[in-house]
Amino acid sequence: MGSLQLNHVNKSFGATQVLFDINLDVADGEFVIFVGPSGCGKSTLLRIIAGLEDSSGGEVRIDGSRVDAVPPAKRGIAMVFQTYALYPHLTVKENMSAGLKQAGTPRDQIEAQVAEASRMLSLDPYLQRRPAELSGGQRQRVAIGRAVVRKPSLFLFDEPLSNLDAALRVHTRLEIARLHRELTATMVYVTHDQVEAMTLADKIVVMNAGRIEQVGSPMALYNNPANLFVAGFIGSPQMNFLRAAAIGMAGAETIGVRPEHLTLSKERGDWAGKVVHIEHLGADTNVYLETEKAGMVTVRLFGEVYHDPGETLWMSPAEQRFVYRFDAAGKVMR
Amino acid sequence: MSKATHSPLRSIAAHAILLTYTVIALFPVFVIIINSFKSKKAIFGAPLSLPLGDAFSLIGYETVFKRGDFLLYFQNSLMVTVASLVLVLLFGAMAAFALSEYRFRLNTLTGLYLALGIMIPIRLGTVAILQLMVASGLVNTLWALILVYTAQGLPLSIFILSEFMRTVSDDLKNAGRIDGMSEYRIFFRLVLPLVRPAMATVAVFTMIPIWNDLWFPLILAPSEATKTVTLGAQMFIGQFQTDWNGVLSALALAILPVLILYLIFSRQLIRGITSGAVK
Amino acid sequence: MATVDIAPVKKPFRWHILVFLAPAALIYTAVMIFPLISTLYQAFFSQKWEFVGFGNFMQLFTDPRLSASFWNALINNVWFFIIHMLVQNPIGILLAALLSNPRLRLRGFYRTVFFIPTILSFVIVGFVWKLILSPTWGVTSGLLKSVGLGWLFQPWLGKEEYALTTLALISNWQFIGIPMMLIYAALLSIPDEVLEAAECDGITGWSQFWKIQLPLVLPAIGIVSILTFVGNFNAFDLVYAAQGAQAGPNFSTDLLGTLLYRTFFGYQLQLGDRAMGSTVAAVMFLIILAGVCVYLFGIQTRLRRYQF
Fold this sequence. Notes:
- The complex is a heterotrimer of chains A (334), B (279) and C (308).
- Chain A has 334 residues and is α+β, with helices and mostly antiparallel strands.
- Chain A has helices spanning 42-50, 92-102, 107-120, 136-149, 166-183, 194-200, 218-223, 228-233; strands at residues 4-13, 16-26, 31-35, 57-62, 65-66, 77-80, 154-158, 186-191, 203-208, 211-216, 240-243, 254-257, 262-265, 271-280, 284-291, 296-302, 312-317, 324-326.
- Chain A folds into 2 domains: 4-231, P-loop containing nucleotide triphosphate hydrolases (Rossmann fold), CATH 3.40.50.300; 237-326, CATH 2.40.50.140.
- In chain A, the strands form 4 sheets. Chain A has a 6-stranded mixed beta sheet, with helices on both faces.
- In chain A, strand 1 (4-13) and strand 2 form a beta hairpin.
- The two termini of chain A are 38 Å apart.
- The model of chain A has no long low-confidence stretch (mean pLDDT 91).
- Chain B has helices spanning 8-36, 40-45, 59-67, 70-101, 107-119, 126-135, 142-165, 170-178, 183-194, 196-212, 215-220, 229-239, 244-274.
- Chain B starts with 7 loop residues before the first helix and ends in a 5-residue tail after the last helix.
- Chain C is mostly helical and 308 residues long.
- Chain C has a single domain (55-299), classed as MetI-like (MetI-like fold), CATH 1.10.3720.
- Helix content of chain C is 69%, strand content 1%.
- Chain C contains 13 helices and 2 strands.
- Chain C has a two-stranded antiparallel ribbon.
- Chains B and C meet through helix 1, helix 4, helix 5, helix 6 and helix 7 of B and helix 1, helix 3, helix 4, helix 5 and helix 6 of C.
């Protein structure tokens, strides 16, 4: 139990529409991530699912029943907020049990559920502390613990890692992944970070300007992006986009090749370019080239490679299947 | 908030309570103002009706302007308030800058010393203040009031302004120093303009109690030439207790300037309070 | 060859710090701190400048005529403060809680209106209410009659048993804006996400208010209380404006502030007494100091301020 359906959900704030006809099915136990640039409407959508915001049209169903008029606490959801949103005057333990207490759960059951969540998230040493006495990472674990305690059928995460530093972010990411495996609960997660999306999700929902651009597994989005936006958003460094006319390829408006799918040669290749800058990241090397007609191109090579700025090199796609062709509307062409 | 978390019934109840209190807050002011425009007969006959037709009369205002020297009182109040305000803001900002900007020995102690006056009312020193003013020949001059109000306003203004000055970027001040600005220039040209919103808040807080004070005008400057509006109104009303038209008009005259000023500055005042300026 | 000077460089005296601090410190010291100390000092001397130790205090506490008015004023003052606590805090919290609802329409209007009485001077407030409650004019009795409660009317300000409570309520009417605003500000500073988390936890409506919001605004209520305490224990203007220096009827509305005024300046046949005036001021100072200390060391340290 813990499925979610969104049917024709719309949302406007006054005259500005921020969500356009959102349709989505999330199966029980799935880990779904909404990803997109800031302002694309992903957080608003999450808040509509939580019941913290009204939709302007359409319906939200959780476990098959319509919940648009159901208060958040009765939807069987739990939410983890970006700023943790812990109750500052309550201890960690009281924070975690507040919801159950309000619902009138028997005391020993509350104890048991808090103990279980606390074990899962290694919160035992902090149970009597207040939020102000915890570090950012600990607070985030408490916030997650508060959600776990309620045994919801649907977990909602609103950019939970964006206030943590890089190392902690990787660590917490692993923890959330482990939690998902242990709890087998449905999770809906919002982020603007495509790495989080790629690493955690069963299914990614790419959003842009209030619309869903594409839904699919991480590798499906990587390998078969439906349009320019998704192709550009998923993958780092970003996919190279070249005007088809400028490089003499007919039948398409734009040609896209990922940096890691290009090879470099001093002698021959499809397009020539002058090395502008070169970045050594250790495991791989990014080479930035300026082509004569098609602008800048990034090439990502594995291992250590040395070239001098100003050198002219030839580049070619490693295989033809790595060349994406987009029409004038930005749709991928098959 | 969404409809799932909100009930219309509660919103109606909220408005009912708030409107009731609106009536309680405004009723007295309203009654005074409408009755100040009425004839004596109408004041007693129908105290809650509007001053229309026969009931309308300006006799009260005529009395006030004939008997009391309200223009002079008003001028006195204005001078005292403006002068105290300028001194409080200027000296307060300077001291706040010294306390928030520089590390020096006695910094904390000086800060605590200046903050004492936030909690201890200056009134308790009245006996010696009067002696001081008598000794310096300032009794029955506006300067006596200006000095007292400046001393009274400084502690809170220093406290609020130094909180705000701590938020001014150090980089900005250091950039000024590298450009060769003196500390005085940094204060007047860089810092003061940036804390202007806080200054406005402090100004409103300082102004209201000065304008409304009765104690010090009564004790330090009760002469005819130095009476403030508040004291003047008090004396006038005391003298003409039975002249209801006069009393009501005097009250209305005392309310209106403050009310108008408040409606102009209320945004500033409320923003000042709610921004946590007073902690 | 250049020698390295390792002795610390003597920095020039930073005159500007002194220049910035001096005007404020001078005025404050001369007009506020010095008179305060001087007043306290004079409490230990007689009218003729003879040192009398605690003599003045003894006289104030025990002299049949003086002590009667002192204890009367003190008890009145305590009652005045209790009424403020009982009336202004609950009403202030209620109004602030209602106003803090972000969906409420007309918030700005209500906020502005509720603060209007606070900006009016005591003289205005005192007389306005005196007129409105006056049996001669009959506004209040008329209003009560129109709702069938005419029998309830009393000349409240004129009766010994009601006058003080009535004045306290008038003072509450005047100052309700301050507790309301400070508590309102504290409520606004609670992040939306915390309240949304409460919504998700099912803590809604009144229980959200009691369990989440009220504990978080307790520090603001503490500040309101101490401000009220200080204000009440040197209150003077309202009583003087509404009831005169004699704090009538029959001293039933006498507060420490009015007592100080009469003692220092005299009234009718009694001559002003500088020494006794200083003594009353000293006692007020001690009461206020005690209150502030209780707040700072006893209450404030226990009321946690929360970082969100």
